[in-house]
Specification:
By secondary structure, the chain is an alpha/beta fold. The protein has 14 helices and 12 strands. The protein is globular. The structure holds pyridoxal-5'-phosphate. Pyridoxal-5'-phosphate (PLP) binds next to helix 5.
Length: about 375
């Protein structure tokens, strides 16, 4: 057999999948990274109307339809007070492709990419696939990323650093002051800040701010998606925005790996972004209620769980053997080590499940906690 590329040999299938495969069929799954809500009707109808109106049979423009990019620009004006030119938006196959083309366009062979550890699994893999060297950095005790840690990690070989707020796997939300600092670091050190904002709307305390609001240079690109906000993970629609020069380079990658995002998904996304936003508020309210239950129960169990302020994940610090004990008892949670070396000793719990299921799972976790402590 022929050899495989060195880049691909450095990447393995996510540890999260291994946990799913090990779990029994009737296990309670708190391992999933997607909301347990339906896609809003008006988004689905956007796609149906476009299909029935014969709008989805052909390629769209490489960047995506003008009407979708205008809806994305309006979203940035409405939510982030950012003046985004629709020409500087590329609609992608989810946030995943947006991250991929951002890395490919900016990271050279042997250059470093700094990202949070524990952090979303794609950052490490995409850095390798771009030929770069991952530089995962630890978090503060409250599981936020300290801008000072990022600044200290920057070397002459650093191409980019990734900020993810609200964060997967921690649920942590960076403060406005931190976001301002990330922008300053990108400006002063002339490195790219890739701001992954896919959980932007799922915030319970404080508010989401983007480093792009504060940067004085064009050294920030923003990755976002409809996946989490509108429970549209299956539609595969995200986007990336940045300066004209950066978008032009990312478009070169997008054009050859993707051509354009799926046309029906683009129409669904446009409808989601420009239609009523109440389904998002309802979902966020449900997540907050579940978060409160989880945090309270962990406190009762004597398990330290930094209070997640966003997304739909909690990341408690757990005793040795806890994850295996919980898995053996039929509840799927993901060991923190799947998200990086500094995630060891933690577990990621997704609360994208109804309250009754979460409470049932918490009873199992309580029993597992007693078992590993005895
Ligand atoms: C932090 C983060 N960024 C990006 C993505 C990719 O999302 P998408 O489904 O839009 O590709 C995910 C998905 O889990 C995520 O957690």
């Amino acid at each position: 057999m022929t050899e495989f590329s060195r880049r691909v040999e450095q990447v393995s299938i996510s540890g999260i999948r291994e946990v799913f495969e090990a779990a029994g069929e009737d296990a309670i799954n708190l391992g999933l990274g997607q909301p347990d809500f339906p896609t809003p009707d008006h988004a689905r109808e956007g796609a149906i109307d476009a299909i029935e109106g014969d709008k989805t049979d052909a390629y769209t423009s490489n960047k995506g339809t003008e009407s979708l990019r205008t809806a994305i620009a309006e979203k940035h004006a409405r939510d982030n007070d950012l003046d985004v030119d629709p020409e500087n938006v590329i609609a992608t196959a989810g946030g995943s492709e947006a991250l991929h083309i951002a890395m490919e366009a900016h990271v050279d062979q042997g250059e470093e990419v700094i990202f949070p550890d524990p952090g979303f699994v794609s950052y490490d893999a995409l850095t390798h696939l771009a030929g770069g060297d991952p530089n995962p950095v630890p978090l503060r005790d409250d599981l936020t990323l300290d801008p000072a840690t990022v600044e200290e990690a920057i070397t002459d070989d650093t191409a980019a650093f990734v900020v993810n707020s609200p964060a997967n796997p921690t649920g942590a939300v960076q403060s406005t002051a931190d976001m301002r600092e990330f922008a300053r670091i990108a400006d002063e050190h002339d490195v790219l800040c890739i701001s992954d904002e896919v959980y932007e709307h799922i915030v319970f305390e404080g508010e989401h701010r983007s480093p792009m609001e504060f940067a004085e240079s064009d050294n920030v690109v923003v990755v976002n998606a409809c996946s989490k906000t509108y429970s549209m993970t299956g539609w595969r629609l995200g986007w990336v925005t940045g300066s004209h020069e950066r978008v032009e380079r990312m478009l070169r990658v997008h054009q050859y790996v993707q051509a354009c995002a799926s046309a029906p998904a683009q129409y669904a996304a446009e409808a989601a972004l420009s239609g009523p936003q109440d389904p998002v508020d309802e979902m966020v309210e449900a997540f907050e209620e579940r978060r409160d239950v989880l945090v309270e129960r962990f406190e009762e169990m004597g398990i330290d769980c930094p209070r997640p302020e966003g997304a739909f994940y909690a990341m408690p610090k757990v005793p040795d053997g806890w994850v295996d004990e919980v898995l053996d008892r039929g509840v799927v949670v993901v060991p923190g080590g799947a998200f990086g070396e500094h995630g060891e000793g933690y577990a990621r719990i997704s609360y994208a499940a109804d309250l009754e299921t979460i409470e049932e799972a918490l009873d199992v976790m309580e029993a597992a906690t007693e078992a590993v402590r005895s």
